[in-house]
Amino acid sequence: MCCCCCPPAINALFYLWVRSGFSKGTVAGALTFFPPDPPLYTFQRVDKDGRDLPDDDDDAVDDDNSGDEADLPDVPDDDDSELGTFEIDTTSSRKQSNGDNSNNSNAINNRRQPDGQETAQRQQSQDPIAAMTERSAKLRKRAKHRALKDATDASSQITYRFLPDLQTLGPLPTYHGTITALKIGPQPKTQSYIAALLYQLPSSEITPHTKTILYSHGNATDIGAMSILQCLISKSCNCNVLVYDYSGYGSSGGVPMEKNTYRDIKLVYQWVVQNITHHEHQVILYGQSVGSGPSCYLASKRQNIGGLILHSPFTSGMRVLTPSRMLACLDIFPNIDRIQKVTCPTFIIHGKKDVEVPMEHGLALYKNLKEEYRYEPWWVEGKGHNDICDGREGVKEYLGRLDG
Protein backbone atom coordinates (compact mmCIF):
# COMPACT_ATOMS: atom_id res chain seq x y z
CA MET A 1 0.00 0.00 0.00
CA CYS A 2 1.30 3.42 -0.83
CA CYS A 3 0.12 6.97 -0.38
CA CYS A 4 1.72 10.38 -0.59
CA CYS A 5 0.00 12.77 1.81
CA CYS A 6 1.35 15.99 0.32
CA PRO A 7 -1.26 18.58 -0.76
CA PRO A 8 -0.66 18.05 -4.53
CA ALA A 9 -1.45 14.36 -4.11
CA ILE A 10 -4.62 15.16 -2.16
CA ASN A 11 -5.67 17.56 -4.91
CA ALA A 12 -4.96 14.87 -7.48
CA LEU A 13 -7.09 12.33 -5.65
CA PHE A 14 -9.94 14.82 -5.32
CA TYR A 15 -9.69 15.61 -9.03
CA LEU A 16 -9.67 11.91 -9.91
CA TRP A 17 -12.65 11.27 -7.62
CA VAL A 18 -14.72 14.01 -9.28
CA ARG A 19 -13.64 13.10 -12.81
CA SER A 20 -14.57 9.44 -12.25
CA GLY A 21 -18.10 10.34 -11.17
CA PHE A 22 -17.27 10.05 -7.45
CA SER A 23 -16.07 6.48 -7.88
CA LYS A 24 -14.47 5.09 -4.75
CA GLY A 25 -13.02 2.23 -6.78
CA THR A 26 -11.13 4.54 -9.12
CA VAL A 27 -9.54 6.50 -6.26
CA ALA A 28 -8.72 3.36 -4.28
CA GLY A 29 -7.21 1.80 -7.38
CA ALA A 30 -4.91 4.78 -7.89
CA LEU A 31 -3.69 4.40 -4.29
CA THR A 32 -3.42 0.64 -4.16
CA PHE A 33 -2.44 -1.16 -7.35
CA PHE A 34 1.05 -0.91 -8.86
CA PRO A 35 1.63 -3.71 -11.38
CA PRO A 36 5.24 -4.23 -12.54
CA ASP A 37 5.88 -2.45 -15.83
CA PRO A 38 7.20 -4.18 -17.82
CA PRO A 39 6.01 -7.55 -16.45
CA LEU A 40 8.51 -10.20 -15.40
CA TYR A 41 7.17 -12.66 -17.96
CA THR A 42 5.33 -12.91 -21.22
CA PHE A 43 2.93 -15.39 -22.77
CA GLN A 44 4.15 -16.51 -26.19
CA ARG A 45 1.11 -16.94 -28.42
CA VAL A 46 1.01 -20.26 -30.30
CA ASP A 47 -1.40 -21.14 -33.10
CA LYS A 48 -3.23 -24.47 -33.36
CA ASP A 49 -0.45 -25.82 -35.61
CA GLY A 50 2.20 -25.13 -32.97
CA ARG A 51 3.72 -22.06 -34.62
CA ASP A 52 4.77 -19.05 -32.56
CA LEU A 53 2.81 -15.91 -33.36
CA PRO A 54 4.11 -12.34 -33.20
CA ASP A 55 2.79 -10.17 -30.40
CA ASP A 56 1.58 -6.62 -30.80
CA ASP A 57 1.64 -3.49 -28.68
CA ASP A 58 -1.12 -3.49 -26.07
CA ASP A 59 -0.90 0.30 -25.90
CA ALA A 60 -1.42 0.81 -29.65
CA VAL A 61 -5.12 1.68 -29.60
CA ASP A 62 -7.19 4.78 -30.26
CA ASP A 63 -8.12 7.30 -27.58
CA ASP A 64 -11.83 6.49 -27.50
CA ASN A 65 -12.56 5.78 -23.84
CA SER A 66 -16.28 5.19 -24.21
CA GLY A 67 -17.62 2.15 -22.47
CA ASP A 68 -14.67 1.72 -20.13
CA GLU A 69 -15.21 -0.70 -17.30
CA ALA A 70 -13.48 1.78 -15.00
CA ASP A 71 -16.44 4.10 -15.49
CA LEU A 72 -18.99 1.61 -14.18
CA PRO A 73 -20.83 2.92 -11.11
CA ASP A 74 -19.65 1.75 -7.73
CA VAL A 75 -21.62 -1.06 -6.13
CA PRO A 76 -21.21 -2.00 -2.45
CA ASP A 77 -18.56 -4.70 -2.06
CA ASP A 78 -20.98 -7.19 -0.52
CA ASP A 79 -23.69 -6.62 -3.12
CA ASP A 80 -23.86 -9.96 -4.93
CA SER A 81 -26.40 -8.60 -7.40
CA GLU A 82 -23.45 -7.08 -9.29
CA LEU A 83 -20.82 -9.73 -8.70
CA GLY A 84 -23.41 -12.46 -8.90
CA THR A 85 -23.81 -15.67 -6.98
CA PHE A 86 -22.56 -18.77 -8.73
CA GLU A 87 -23.07 -22.48 -8.82
CA ILE A 88 -20.24 -24.71 -9.94
CA ASP A 89 -20.87 -27.32 -12.62
CA THR A 90 -18.28 -30.02 -12.02
CA THR A 91 -19.48 -32.09 -14.96
CA SER A 92 -18.08 -29.69 -17.53
CA SER A 93 -14.44 -29.37 -18.49
CA ARG A 94 -12.89 -26.52 -20.43
CA LYS A 95 -9.91 -26.89 -22.72
CA GLN A 96 -6.66 -25.72 -21.16
CA SER A 97 -4.05 -23.72 -23.03
CA ASN A 98 -0.86 -25.75 -23.12
CA GLY A 99 2.44 -24.18 -22.15
CA ASP A 100 5.81 -24.93 -20.66
CA ASN A 101 8.78 -23.19 -19.13
CA SER A 102 11.01 -23.69 -22.18
CA ASN A 103 14.33 -21.92 -22.49
CA ASN A 104 12.99 -19.53 -25.14
CA SER A 105 13.48 -16.59 -22.79
CA ASN A 106 15.08 -14.16 -25.22
CA ALA A 107 11.71 -12.92 -26.41
CA ILE A 108 10.86 -11.21 -23.15
CA ASN A 109 14.36 -9.86 -22.63
CA ASN A 110 14.22 -8.24 -26.06
CA ARG A 111 10.89 -6.61 -25.17
CA ARG A 112 12.34 -4.70 -22.24
CA GLN A 113 12.59 -1.00 -22.96
CA PRO A 114 16.01 0.67 -22.55
CA ASP A 115 14.48 3.98 -21.48
CA GLY A 116 13.01 2.85 -18.14
CA GLN A 117 15.06 5.39 -16.20
CA GLU A 118 14.04 8.16 -18.57
CA THR A 119 10.38 7.20 -18.18
CA ALA A 120 10.65 7.19 -14.39
CA GLN A 121 12.29 10.62 -14.41
CA ARG A 122 9.57 11.97 -16.69
CA GLN A 123 6.84 10.62 -14.38
CA GLN A 124 8.52 12.15 -11.34
CA SER A 125 8.60 15.55 -13.05
CA GLN A 126 4.85 15.44 -13.72
CA ASP A 127 2.40 16.91 -11.28
CA PRO A 128 0.25 14.26 -9.51
CA ILE A 129 -2.94 15.12 -11.41
CA ALA A 130 -1.26 14.68 -14.80
CA ALA A 131 0.49 11.47 -13.72
CA MET A 132 -2.67 9.85 -12.35
CA THR A 133 -4.75 10.91 -15.34
CA GLU A 134 -2.16 9.60 -17.80
CA ARG A 135 -1.82 6.28 -15.96
CA SER A 136 -5.59 5.82 -15.74
CA ALA A 137 -6.07 6.52 -19.45
CA LYS A 138 -3.24 4.17 -20.42
CA LEU A 139 -4.67 1.30 -18.38
CA ARG A 140 -8.17 1.75 -19.81
CA LYS A 141 -6.89 1.80 -23.39
CA ARG A 142 -4.77 -1.27 -22.78
CA ALA A 143 -7.74 -3.10 -21.25
CA LYS A 144 -9.92 -2.50 -24.31
CA HIS A 145 -7.21 -3.71 -26.67
CA ARG A 146 -6.51 -6.84 -24.65
CA ALA A 147 -10.19 -7.75 -24.41
CA LEU A 148 -10.46 -7.74 -28.20
CA LYS A 149 -7.19 -9.61 -28.71
CA ASP A 150 -7.93 -12.28 -26.09
CA ALA A 151 -11.42 -12.89 -27.47
CA THR A 152 -9.96 -13.34 -30.95
CA ASP A 153 -7.30 -15.71 -29.58
CA ALA A 154 -9.94 -17.80 -27.83
CA SER A 155 -12.02 -18.16 -30.99
CA SER A 156 -8.89 -19.05 -32.99
CA GLN A 157 -7.78 -21.75 -30.50
CA ILE A 158 -4.60 -19.87 -29.65
CA THR A 159 -2.64 -21.33 -26.76
CA TYR A 160 0.22 -19.85 -24.73
CA ARG A 161 3.70 -20.70 -23.55
CA PHE A 162 5.12 -19.17 -20.37
CA LEU A 163 8.37 -17.24 -20.82
CA PRO A 164 9.75 -16.00 -17.48
CA ASP A 165 12.23 -13.14 -17.41
CA LEU A 166 15.18 -15.33 -16.51
CA GLN A 167 17.59 -12.41 -16.83
CA THR A 168 15.93 -10.80 -13.82
CA LEU A 169 14.64 -13.84 -11.93
CA GLY A 170 17.42 -16.34 -12.53
CA PRO A 171 16.82 -20.01 -13.42
CA LEU A 172 13.69 -21.77 -12.21
CA PRO A 173 14.13 -24.77 -9.89
CA THR A 174 13.69 -28.23 -11.36
CA TYR A 175 10.00 -29.07 -11.53
CA HIS A 176 8.84 -32.51 -12.67
CA GLY A 177 5.21 -31.55 -13.17
CA THR A 178 3.77 -29.34 -15.89
CA ILE A 179 3.52 -25.56 -16.00
CA THR A 180 0.55 -24.52 -18.11
CA ALA A 181 -0.08 -20.97 -19.26
CA LEU A 182 -3.76 -20.05 -19.28
CA LYS A 183 -6.07 -17.23 -20.25
CA ILE A 184 -9.25 -17.79 -18.20
CA GLY A 185 -12.39 -16.00 -19.29
CA PRO A 186 -14.16 -14.05 -20.42
CA GLN A 187 -15.32 -12.39 -17.22
CA PRO A 188 -19.07 -11.83 -17.77
CA LYS A 189 -19.15 -8.18 -16.67
CA THR A 190 -15.92 -6.84 -18.19
CA GLN A 191 -15.29 -9.40 -20.97
CA SER A 192 -11.65 -9.56 -19.88
CA TYR A 193 -9.45 -12.65 -19.64
CA ILE A 194 -7.20 -13.43 -16.68
CA ALA A 195 -3.63 -14.71 -17.13
CA ALA A 196 -2.75 -17.65 -14.90
CA LEU A 197 -0.17 -20.37 -14.45
CA LEU A 198 -1.10 -23.88 -13.35
CA TYR A 199 1.67 -25.85 -11.64
CA GLN A 200 0.34 -29.39 -11.82
CA LEU A 201 1.82 -32.55 -10.35
CA PRO A 202 2.53 -35.54 -12.61
CA SER A 203 -0.60 -37.63 -13.08
CA SER A 204 1.09 -40.54 -11.28
CA GLU A 205 1.31 -38.42 -8.10
CA ILE A 206 -2.25 -37.07 -8.11
CA THR A 207 -4.76 -38.76 -5.79
CA PRO A 208 -8.40 -38.02 -4.92
CA HIS A 209 -7.03 -36.09 -1.92
CA THR A 210 -4.61 -33.83 -3.83
CA LYS A 211 -5.16 -30.18 -2.94
CA THR A 212 -4.91 -27.19 -5.25
CA ILE A 213 -3.72 -23.85 -3.86
CA LEU A 214 -5.32 -20.80 -5.47
CA TYR A 215 -2.65 -18.16 -4.93
CA SER A 216 -3.45 -14.41 -4.91
CA HIS A 217 -0.11 -12.58 -4.94
CA GLY A 218 0.98 -9.26 -3.46
CA ASN A 219 0.86 -5.80 -4.97
CA ALA A 220 3.95 -4.85 -6.98
CA THR A 221 4.58 -8.31 -8.40
CA ASP A 222 3.17 -10.71 -10.98
CA ILE A 223 2.98 -14.41 -11.80
CA GLY A 224 6.40 -14.28 -13.43
CA ALA A 225 8.07 -13.03 -10.27
CA MET A 226 6.22 -15.68 -8.24
CA SER A 227 7.27 -18.61 -10.44
CA ILE A 228 10.19 -19.84 -8.34
CA LEU A 229 8.12 -19.91 -5.15
CA GLN A 230 5.20 -21.68 -6.84
CA CYS A 231 7.49 -24.44 -8.13
CA LEU A 232 8.79 -24.98 -4.60
CA ILE A 233 5.33 -24.97 -3.00
CA SER A 234 3.92 -27.50 -5.46
CA LYS A 235 6.92 -29.79 -5.18
CA SER A 236 7.36 -29.62 -1.40
CA CYS A 237 3.67 -29.74 -0.43
CA ASN A 238 2.72 -32.27 -3.11
CA CYS A 239 -0.10 -30.09 -4.38
CA ASN A 240 -1.16 -28.23 -7.49
CA VAL A 241 -0.84 -24.44 -7.50
CA LEU A 242 -2.73 -21.98 -9.66
CA VAL A 243 -1.46 -18.40 -9.47
CA TYR A 244 -3.11 -15.63 -11.45
CA ASP A 245 -2.58 -11.96 -12.26
CA TYR A 246 -5.22 -9.44 -11.24
CA SER A 247 -6.97 -7.37 -13.87
CA GLY A 248 -4.44 -4.92 -15.33
CA TYR A 249 -1.44 -6.95 -14.15
CA GLY A 250 0.93 -8.81 -16.46
CA SER A 251 -0.91 -10.41 -19.38
CA SER A 252 -4.35 -10.11 -17.78
CA GLY A 253 -6.97 -7.88 -19.32
CA GLY A 254 -9.08 -5.33 -17.49
CA VAL A 255 -8.01 -2.52 -15.19
CA PRO A 256 -6.78 -2.83 -11.59
CA MET A 257 -9.66 -2.08 -9.23
CA GLU A 258 -10.85 -3.59 -5.94
CA LYS A 259 -14.10 -4.76 -7.48
CA ASN A 260 -12.23 -6.42 -10.33
CA THR A 261 -10.09 -8.46 -7.93
CA TYR A 262 -13.30 -10.01 -6.62
CA ARG A 263 -14.42 -10.77 -10.16
CA ASP A 264 -10.99 -12.22 -10.91
CA ILE A 265 -10.82 -14.65 -8.00
CA LYS A 266 -14.41 -15.75 -8.50
CA LEU A 267 -13.72 -16.51 -12.19
CA VAL A 268 -10.47 -18.37 -11.49
CA TYR A 269 -11.98 -20.31 -8.57
CA GLN A 270 -14.81 -21.54 -10.78
CA TRP A 271 -12.27 -22.67 -13.36
CA VAL A 272 -10.21 -24.57 -10.78
CA VAL A 273 -13.21 -26.45 -9.38
CA GLN A 274 -14.63 -27.25 -12.81
CA ASN A 275 -11.36 -28.34 -14.40
CA ILE A 276 -8.96 -29.49 -11.66
CA THR A 277 -10.41 -30.42 -8.27
CA HIS A 278 -14.12 -31.02 -9.03
CA HIS A 279 -14.72 -30.44 -5.30
CA GLU A 280 -14.56 -27.13 -3.44
CA HIS A 281 -13.07 -28.69 -0.31
CA GLN A 282 -9.95 -29.57 -2.33
CA VAL A 283 -9.19 -25.87 -2.90
CA ILE A 284 -7.06 -23.83 -0.48
CA LEU A 285 -7.07 -20.06 -0.89
CA TYR A 286 -3.74 -18.29 -0.34
CA GLY A 287 -3.64 -14.49 -0.12
CA GLN A 288 -0.40 -12.56 0.26
CA SER A 289 -0.61 -8.91 1.35
CA VAL A 290 -3.10 -7.25 -1.03
CA GLY A 291 -4.07 -10.78 -2.10
CA SER A 292 -5.61 -11.24 1.35
CA GLY A 293 -8.44 -8.97 0.14
CA PRO A 294 -9.88 -11.17 -2.62
CA SER A 295 -9.03 -14.32 -0.65
CA CYS A 296 -10.97 -13.17 2.43
CA TYR A 297 -13.80 -12.03 0.18
CA LEU A 298 -14.21 -15.44 -1.46
CA ALA A 299 -13.68 -17.39 1.77
CA SER A 300 -16.48 -15.38 3.40
CA LYS A 301 -18.83 -16.28 0.52
CA ARG A 302 -18.10 -19.99 -0.01
CA GLN A 303 -18.81 -22.40 2.82
CA ASN A 304 -17.04 -25.51 1.51
CA ILE A 305 -13.52 -24.23 0.83
CA GLY A 306 -10.77 -26.48 2.14
CA GLY A 307 -8.69 -23.80 3.83
CA LEU A 308 -7.43 -20.21 3.88
CA ILE A 309 -3.83 -18.99 4.22
CA LEU A 310 -3.23 -15.29 4.87
CA HIS A 311 0.37 -14.12 4.40
CA SER A 312 1.16 -10.63 5.75
CA PRO A 313 -2.54 -9.63 5.61
CA PHE A 314 -4.14 -6.32 6.57
CA THR A 315 -7.38 -5.58 8.39
CA SER A 316 -8.45 -3.21 5.61
CA GLY A 317 -6.79 -1.05 2.99
CA MET A 318 -7.29 2.31 4.67
CA ARG A 319 -6.31 0.99 8.10
CA VAL A 320 -2.81 0.40 6.73
CA LEU A 321 -2.52 4.15 6.14
CA THR A 322 -4.30 5.43 9.25
CA PRO A 323 -6.28 4.03 12.19
CA SER A 324 -8.69 6.96 11.84
CA ARG A 325 -12.08 6.11 10.33
CA MET A 326 -12.55 9.62 8.90
CA LEU A 327 -11.70 8.23 5.44
CA ALA A 328 -13.81 5.09 5.85
CA CYS A 329 -15.78 6.07 2.75
CA LEU A 330 -12.66 5.30 0.68
CA ASP A 331 -11.77 2.07 2.49
CA ILE A 332 -11.26 -1.14 0.53
CA PHE A 333 -10.78 -4.82 1.30
CA PRO A 334 -12.53 -4.89 4.73
CA ASN A 335 -10.88 -8.15 5.82
CA ILE A 336 -11.56 -7.46 9.49
CA ASP A 337 -15.30 -7.74 8.85
CA ARG A 338 -15.16 -10.67 6.44
CA ILE A 339 -12.87 -12.85 8.54
CA GLN A 340 -15.76 -13.35 10.97
CA LYS A 341 -17.74 -15.09 8.21
CA VAL A 342 -14.98 -17.54 7.26
CA THR A 343 -15.87 -21.19 7.92
CA CYS A 344 -12.69 -23.07 7.03
CA PRO A 345 -9.34 -23.73 8.76
CA THR A 346 -7.29 -20.52 8.52
CA PHE A 347 -3.52 -20.14 8.84
CA ILE A 348 -2.08 -16.64 9.34
CA ILE A 349 1.58 -15.80 8.65
CA HIS A 350 3.02 -12.42 9.65
CA GLY A 351 6.52 -11.06 10.19
CA LYS A 352 7.09 -9.46 13.59
CA LYS A 353 9.19 -6.69 12.00
CA ASP A 354 6.72 -5.85 9.23
CA VAL A 355 6.65 -2.05 8.92
CA GLU A 356 4.49 -1.91 5.78
CA VAL A 357 1.61 -3.85 7.33
CA PRO A 358 2.38 -4.13 11.06
CA MET A 359 1.81 -7.48 12.76
CA GLU A 360 -1.11 -5.96 14.70
CA HIS A 361 -3.16 -6.45 11.53
CA GLY A 362 -2.50 -10.19 11.54
CA LEU A 363 -3.22 -10.38 15.27
CA ALA A 364 -6.53 -8.56 14.87
CA LEU A 365 -7.61 -10.90 12.07
CA TYR A 366 -6.67 -13.92 14.16
CA LYS A 367 -8.70 -12.66 17.13
CA ASN A 368 -11.75 -11.98 14.94
CA LEU A 369 -11.64 -15.43 13.37
CA LYS A 370 -14.04 -17.95 14.90
CA GLU A 371 -12.10 -20.07 17.36
CA GLU A 372 -12.94 -23.41 15.74
CA TYR A 373 -11.30 -22.29 12.49
CA ARG A 374 -8.05 -20.99 13.98
CA TYR A 375 -4.96 -22.84 12.85
CA GLU A 376 -1.88 -22.08 14.98
CA PRO A 377 -0.47 -18.84 13.49
CA TRP A 378 3.15 -18.25 12.58
CA TRP A 379 4.48 -14.96 13.91
CA VAL A 380 7.86 -14.90 12.20
CA GLU A 381 10.80 -13.66 14.26
CA GLY A 382 13.07 -11.07 12.65
CA LYS A 383 11.12 -10.88 9.38
CA GLY A 384 9.26 -8.06 7.68
CA HIS A 385 6.70 -7.81 4.90
CA ASN A 386 8.50 -9.34 1.91
CA ASP A 387 11.37 -11.39 3.34
CA ILE A 388 9.68 -14.28 5.17
CA CYS A 389 10.85 -16.72 2.47
CA ASP A 390 14.34 -15.24 2.08
CA GLY A 391 17.38 -17.45 2.53
CA ARG A 392 17.78 -21.21 2.51
CA GLU A 393 16.64 -21.64 6.12
CA GLY A 394 13.73 -19.25 5.65
CA VAL A 395 12.46 -21.18 2.64
CA LYS A 396 12.89 -24.49 4.46
CA GLU A 397 10.88 -23.38 7.48
CA TYR A 398 8.22 -21.72 5.32
CA LEU A 399 7.65 -24.84 3.22
CA GLY A 400 7.65 -27.00 6.33
CA ARG A 401 4.94 -24.86 7.92
CA LEU A 402 2.80 -25.01 4.78
CA ASP A 403 3.17 -28.76 4.46
CA GLY A 404 2.30 -29.21 8.12
Automatic annotation (TrEMBL):
Region of interest (Disordered), residue spans: 48-130
UniProt feature, compositional bias: Polar residues: 116-127
InterPro entries: AB_hydrolase_fold, Hydrolase_4
SUPFAM superfamilies: alpha/beta-Hydrolases
Stretches assigned to the Serine aminopeptidase S33 domain: 210-318
Domain of life: Eukaryota
Composition-biased stretches (Low complexity): 98-110
UniProt biased composition (Acidic residues): 54-82
Name of the molecule in the record: Serine aminopeptidase S33 domain-containing protein
Annotated organism of origin: Cyclotella atomus
